[in-house]
Amino acid sequence: MLGAGASAQEAGLLLADPDVRAIFVCDDGGRLVGVLTRKTLVREVVAAGLDPAGTRVDAIAEPPAHTLDAALPLDEAFRALEEDDLERVPVVEEGRLVGVLSRAVVQRRLAEDEPPPEDGDAASDGIVL
Q1: Best CA proximity match to 100, nearest among 120, 63, 70, 57
Q2: What SS3 class is residue 18?
């Protein structure tokens, strides 16, 4: 996460890490302003010929295409991730960023919560997906 006043250069340093795919930009109150990716930096800063040190991230961050409300039940959140084929989504509470939900983590959590099949279930004879 970066503050809205951070520079594109600061964002670029974070995005240079191959494990970082996106950066969430928040205002001073923690409200989600937008999302930055490498693609955003190239298009909005490099291709536009802007100075990365003088370009604020809040000026180039894209509004998130999807967010999930923190009060959403886990199974509904998973359904939303599946329907839109999303890997990670910011979780907000009254507009404030409170976390990021990953489809892989939700799948694992839901699998842990499922009771084992009973002996009489047809599914107990094979692999349960």
Answers
A1: 70
A2: coil
- 8 Å CB contact between 74 and 89: no
Q: How many helices (H) and strands (E) does the chain have?
A: 5, 6
Structure tokens at 11: 């964002």
- Rounded Cα distance between 86 and 105, Å, is 12
Q: Are 77 and 68 in contact (CB under 8 A)?
A: yes
Q: Provide φ and ψ at 6, rounded to 5°.
A: -65, 160
pTM: 0.76
pLDDT in tens, 50-102: 999 999 999 999 999 999 999 999 888 888 898 999 888 999 999 999 999 98
**Is residue 30's pLDDT more than 90?**
yes
Please report the beta strands in the chain, taking only residues with DSSP state E, as ranges in sequence order.
2-3, 23-26, 32-36, 68-69, 88-93, 96-102
Task: Name which of 62, 99, 101 is nearest 79 in CA terms.
Answer: 101
Rounded CA separation 125/36 (Å): 47
